[in-house]
Specification:
The protein has 358 residues and is α+β, with helices and mostly antiparallel strands. The chain has two domains: 144 residues, 3-Layer(bba) Sandwich (D-tyrosyl-trna(Tyr) Deacylase, Chain: A); 190 residues, no CATH class. Helix content is 42%, strand content 22%. Strands 1, 2, 3, 6, 7 and 8 form a six-stranded mixed beta sheet that branches. Helix 4 runs antiparallel to helix 6, helix 4 runs parallel beside helix 7 and helix 8 packs antiparallel against helix 10. The chain is globular and about 70 Å long.
Length: 358
Amino acid sequence: MRAVVQRVSKASVRVGGETAGAIGKGFVVLLGVTHDDGAAEADYLARKIAGLRVFEDEAGKMNVGLEEAGGVVLAVSQFTLYGDVRKGRRPSFTAAARPEEALPLYERFCEALAAQGLRVERGVFQAHMKIELINDGPVTLWLDTDDLMADACGKPGGGETMSEDSYLLAEEPPVDLAIAEEMVAELDSYLVGNDLYRTVMARTGRGELKLQMSGGDLLSRLHRLQGERDALSAAEQARLDAVQQSADRAIYSLRTRFHERLGREMKARLDSLRWYLDECQEDRAKCRTEYPFEIRNRQRIEEILKQLGKNASPELMSVLNQVDRRIRQLGQSPGFVWDRRLEKVYPSDRYWYLYQRP
């Protein structure tokens, strides 16, 4: 699911000469839906947009959220966000969901925004609309759940889920192995390209999974599999050995590019942790609930540092030390915060941040 969010001082949408929706200060949200989107994407994207702090405070800094600013949302369905212009001059829209698929999710998205306490005006689905707006700033943001719900943001998408008591549940080792095999198969292409994250489709024992791949996530998954090697059958252990060897060869042959990509990823994960820690000062209950997901960024950084060694940037290490101090200051309610079967994989001396929570 994709959205273009524009901060506006006013906006309106007209259909056939009649005004269908109009707002003053707020957001115009153009929403695109693709085939494998569902309620989870709609709900997550609505929460993300509702939480954006892009209105100025008294000091002129972007530090005020939409509700606090008294803003309203004008939500408009926009299938062209999934237009593909890589071939020829006429866009292809095959990646856009069919209307019967997109309409329920557009409505779900609008309802999820309203559930956040926001007033929502709407366009008219499938109609020819004319939108007038004054972009204030200008401020325009592009949001894609394929990226937002990936590991880089500390949200679902990396092959783990949350239990009802907010503990992180890992995939079973055979599923993890199938995912690792697909990631390694994509590793050369990932390293030759320039994107920090790459979408992969992995066929597993519980169906086809769509995930985001990064260097840190691959390293973390291989570390976890080696730690749970005894849970694999003999044939699966042989597959693990093969995938580890393939990963090692690809990394060795493109080590400079891999290290450059890991440095970029480390910075992105540190930024995510800093934003999370800033939010912890405002909402301790939310901070505690989201800690198991958010702290994945810190664990991925651990695996990145094992690979970078002395090549890690001194500037990034300085930022990491600052972040670690802030994590320790959150409080130390003891107990392993992830799936308890993984305790042996992540010993407390090195992975201390997995043994506390706010």
